[in-house]
Amino acid sequence: MKILNLYAGIGGNRKLWGDEHDVTAVESEQYIADVYAELYPNDTVVVADAHQYLLDHYKEFDFVWSSPPCPTHSRMRTSLTKSKPVYPDMKLYEEVIFLKHFYKGLWVVENVTPYYEPLIKPTALIDRHFVWSSSPLDSKDFTRGYAGAVVTQTKETLAAEYGIALPEGTKNQRKLLRNAVHPQFGNYIFNSLTQQEDI
Question: Residue 185: pLDDT above 60?
Answer without folding.
Answer: yes
